[in-house]
Structures are given as structure tokens and as C-alpha cells.
Specification:
The chain has 292 residues and is α/β, with parallel strands linked by helices. The protein has eight helices and eleven strands. Strands 1-4-7-5-8-9-10-11 form an eight-stranded mixed β-sheet, sandwiched between helices. It has a three-stranded antiparallel β-sheet with strand order 2-3-6, with no helix packed on it. The longest helix is centred in the middle third of the chain and has 16 residues.
């Protein structure tokens, strides 16, 4: 793998990540957005066409072997890299958890691209687990909004590793060991989905088959990983029923799951500490992770 940032050696690990190309030899499919990528002053990345992993390591004294791959939100059109990426990674490493922000490529109506990046990231982290002090059976995924859709997609569309391939990474499982979903887009069905995310992923007039394929509440099985979900009841961007229907599907299949719906907060609060329930949800998450 190619290390893009070596200057992390000069500072504390939690202050600067290692940055790796997810597909150093180029991906199988491109999204057609080359040379359009923009990093805005607030840290958001639009038109992302290059998948990267931003890896934050905890201090060795508190490292517990858990790793979390983070999928920022942004309606499959941009990446909210600050409040739903870097700041969450900083919180995770204080819990002794290795945090990996997945800078996944925007689909631009190439629906397989984000999932391919997320699956590859799961394999990639397991491949590096021994070097990084990670238990390969404790690699989870977290996602916010559209990133929550991606996290729940890889949690319901996975394999245990591919045999007969010369690509060593593809031999690792792409199944997360657990999932943490913040105000996630779960379904692509009209009236429930976030229309902007659906259009960016599937186009303006998706087929019934495509809608069903990415309505993740329809793909939960007994093998789906345990889940923790957070949502706000007054979320007018992504209705809280997205989390409800996913929770119901998980319980129907006897998958361990916990759902918290706060009475207010709207959408996109992420790590913003002005969210009224910031301390509550971080404490709830910290306690849940201790049980993993």
C-alpha cells in the first residue's frame, strides 16, 4: 500500500492520520469525476473521485483491539469530513479504538462504487490488523446519513472472502463485525428515503430492482452484524422511520440491536457539541462499544 503522508511521525498519532490510497493500482470502475474534486474551507469534499483511508491510531497504552471504519455523510454528493469524520475519529481513539475515515468515491449514478470502496476498506483493514494491533474479528463500520446508508449496505451486502483470486485482499471477509448508524438513510423507497441521496446513487428514474437492491431493510438476515442506531424524531431530511424499519428487520431476524430516538435535534448533528444530547449519545456509544 502507498503511504501518502509520512510527516505523522513528527506529531502525536491522534493529531494527524496516515493516509492511504484504497486502490493504488486504480479501481475497476471509475465515477467519471476525475479532476473535479474540491476540498472546501469547512473540510467538506465534493466530487470525490479518489478513495482514501485516513487512519488514526490510539495511544498504545489504551488500545483495545477494536477498529471502526467511518463513512461521513453528504447525500452521496459530498463528504462531511469534519463533524462526521475527523472529530468522530478523534473521539474514537480516546476510547482506545483505531479509527479509519473512508473517503469513499461519489457514485455519480454508478451505484456499485461506494459499496465497492466500503467492502475494500473492510478487507484492507483486516489485512493490516496484526501490524496495527487490531483484532480482525472486531472491525466495525459507522456511518452518518448517506454514509449510514453505505454502512448499512455493506452490513447487508457482504461476503466471507473470495477464493481463487490472486488479490490477497479479496480473500478477507467484507462483513463488518458491528455497525453504528447515525440518522441513516436506510431505504430507497419513495416516501421514506432521502430523495437527494437516491438520485445521486441511482439516478432520477431508478428501476424497481435498483430500489429494492439498496433498500437495506429488505436484506437483513440472521448474519447481519449487531447494530446501534441514533436518530432524531424531528429529522425532516431523513425520516426517523428509516432507523425504525431497519431496527424492526434486525429484531425480526434476531440480530442484537439498540435504537435511540431523541425528541429533537434535526439532521446532521454529528460531533457538534451544541446538539442537546451530545453527552448522552457519546456515553451510550462508549458503553455499547465496551460490550463488543
Amino acid at each position: 500500500m502507498i503511504l501518502l503522508n509520512l510527516c505523522f511521525l513528527a506529531v502525536k498519532a491522534q493529531e494527524m492520520p496516515e493516509v492511504y490510497l484504497l486502490w493504488p493500482d486504480g479501481p475497476e470502475e471509475n465515477n467519471g469525476l476525475a479532476d473535479q474534486e474540491i476540498t472546501e474551507s469547512n473540510g467538506n469534499i465534493t466530487f470525490n473521485s479518489t478513495a482514501k483511508l485516513h487512519v488514526y491510531h490510539p495511544e498504545k497504552e489504551i488500545q483495545n483491539g477494536i477498529a471502526v471504519i467511518i463513512c461521513p455523510g453528504g447525500g452521496y454528493s459530498f463528504l462531511s469530513m469534519e463533524y462526521e469524520g475527523r472529530m468522530f475519529a478523534q473521539w474514537l481513539i480516546k476510547q482506545g479504538i483505531t479509527a479509519i475515515i473512508l473517503q469513499y468515491r461519489m457514485p455519480a449514478q454508478h451505484d456499485r462504487i461506494p459499496l465497492a470502496d466500503a467492502q475494500r476498506a473492510m478487507r484492507w483493514v483486516r489485512n493490516r490488523a496484526e501490524n496495527w494491533g487490531i483484532n480482525p474479528d472486531k472491525v466495525g463500520i459507522a456511518g452518518f446519513s448517506a454514509g449510514g446508508h453505505l454502512a448499512s449496505t455493506v452490513s447487508t451486502h457482504f461476503d466471507s472472502g473470495k477464493s481463487g483470486t490472486t488479490d490477497r485482499l479479496e480473500q478477507y471477509s467484507s462483513r463488518p463485525d458491528f455497525q453504528i448508524l447515525f440518522y441513516p438513510v436506510i431505504s430507497m423507497t419513495a416516501g421514506l428515503t432521502h430523495s437527494g441521496s437516491r438520485e445521486a446513487l441511482l439516478g432520477k428514474n431508478p428501476s424497481a430492482e435498483a430500489i429494492a437492491q439498496y433498500s437495506n431493510e429488505q436484506h437483513v438476515t440472521a448474519k447481519t452484524p449487531p447494530a446501534l442506531l441514533f436518530h432524531s424524531d424531528d429529522d425532516t431530511v431523513v425520516p426517523s422511520m428509516n432507523s425504525v424499519v431497519f431496527y424492526q428487520a434486525l429484531k425480526k431476524n434476531k440480530v442484537p440491536a439498540v435504537l435511540y430516538i431523541f425528541d429533537k435535534g434535526g439532521h446532521g448533528w454529528g460531533m457538534r457539541n451544541n446538539f442537546e444530547y451530545h453527552n448522552q449519545w457519546t456515553n451510550l456509544l462508549a458503553n455499547w462499544l465496551k460490550k463488543i
